[in-house]
Specification:
Helix content: under 10%
Order of helices and strands: HEEEEEEEEEEEEEEEEEEEEEEEEE
Largest sheet: 6 strands, mixed
Distance between the termini: 183 Å
Shape: rod-shaped
Oligomer: single chain
Number of strands: 25
């Protein structure tokens, strides 16, 4: 009996001591509670004060950000400390504090922010600026979008939110891109040279805008194709048809292929360029032909007039100028004047080099060079001269065998 009373007394004493300790360390003031303080802050429902100890939040191993089974029916704003690394992006979780927003767990300060003054200890590929969900990356200034990187294909748009190519620049004015360089400037394909022609479009200061293009004025430079076609003003809604092209002689298989240049003009009232002058990869210049066979070839629409050529191989060295034509027939050569400098004043030759090929033929008519279909004198390559015959058999061959004075 005495033992029972003694036990009850000890229990009552313990309760009294706990109550006194609670009263001494905790104060309840107008619906707020203070722990280890007699002056709980009026703005807080619970004021915990200590100088050497902290508050220990429940430690829970979440399985993902949308985990609602580890804690059944979590309340809005419920706070925990997650201890697990789990889940799949974008619902993965890492150790740290999380609160429940009514739908999923949201980490509090789980990532390291990018500092305005820069960050230390970064690793390329691990640390990045961007998104980890299927959303575009948008850059704004003054709350207005200025650049966007598409999630679907990585296209970058400046001035447009729907870029159609790798880099799409759209401006409300007539200048989209301005490139300034103190050194060499190049635009190259992914392999530094093109294996096919025309992979680029480069437009420099076209007049008007993209919505209302106009023809360029004097001084504007336009390049349509690069690669095989390095400079090429092409037809388009923003510019006209005259063009200068520098293009390769063939598709690139290496970086040392030859090039050629052509010049084209456009008739008034049309927009179709017509090639006029061509310089081939071996230096031949063609006027009226895209395939000059000699250093200078002139092939007009009519075959009445001779081509003009200057050569050192296969012709007599040291000549000033020679006219010749690969076309056979009476109109193979036609000269109006013959005032030249050099040891050989005027030479008129056919394309061949055999003795039977005619060097000079004079015919009736106003000109001393034949302009009719009757030849009166012929000089062959072997030196034979024929008068009245086109096939002289001797040094001087007269058709009727008579010479009169």
């Amino acid at each position: 009996m005495k033992t029972l009373i003694s036990t009850q007394s000890k229990f009552i004493s313990y309760i009294i001591q706990c109550t006194l300790a609670l009263l001494l360390s905790t104060s309840a003031q107008a619906q707020n509670i203070g722990i280890n303080t007699l002056t709980a802050d009026a703005s807080s429902i619970l004021d915990i004060t200590h100088t050497t100890r902290g508050l220990l939040i429940p430690r829970i191993p979440l399985t993902s950000a949308n985990d609602i089974t580890t804690i059944v029916m979590p309340a809005l704003s419920l706070l925990i400390f997650n201890t697990a690394t789990a889940g799949i992006i974008p619902n993965n979780v890492k150790p740290g504090y999380y609160y429940f927003n009514g739908t999923k767990w949201v980490g509090i300060g789980t990532g390291v922010a990018w500092d305005l003054m820069g960050n230390l200890g970064t690793t390329a590929g691990t640390n990045f600026i961007g998104t980890i969900d299927a959303q575009d990356l948008v850059f704004k200034t003054n709350s207005l979008e200025n650049m966007r990187i598409l999630n679907s294909n990585g296209n970058v748009g400046i001035g447009t939110n729907s870029p159609l190519v790798n880099l799409d620049v759209l401006s409300s004015g007539n200048t989209n891109i301005n490139v300034t360089s103190d050194g060499n400037f190049s635009i190259l394909s992914a392999t530094s040279y093109s294996t096919i022609g025309s992979p680029y479009f480069i437009g420099l200061l076209a007049q008007g805008t993209k919505l209302t293009p106009t023809y360029p004025t004097t001084g504007k430079i336009l390049t349509y194709f690069a690669g095989r076609d390095a400079i090429d003003g092409r037809l388009g809604s923003a510019y006209g048809g005259g063009q200068i092209r520098i293009v390769t002689d063939e598709n690139f298989t290496s970086v040392d292929k030859g090039t050629f240049m052509d010049f084209s003009t456009t008739q008034r009232g049309t927009n179709l360029p017509v090639e006029r002058v061509t310089i081939t990869s071996n230096g031949n210049v063609g006027i009226g032909t895209a395939f000059p066979a000699n250093l200078l070839s002139n092939i007009p629409a009519s075959s009445t007039y001779a081509n003009v050529s200057s050569e050192n191989t296969g012709q007599q060295a040291g000549k000033s100028l020679s006219w010749y034509n690969d076309i056979s027939g009476f109109s193979a050569a036609f000269i109006n004047t013959g005032i030249l400098n050099g040891s050989n004043g005027v030479q008129i030759r056919t394309a061949g080099n055999s003795a039977s090929q005619k060097i000079l033929a004079l015919g009736t008519g106003v000109s001393s060079i034949p302009n009719a279909n009757t030849e009166i004198m012929t000089v062959l390559g072997n030196g034979n001269v024929g008068i009245g015959t086109t096939t002289p058999a001797t040094k001087l061959h007269l058709l009727d065998g008579q010479i009169t004075q």
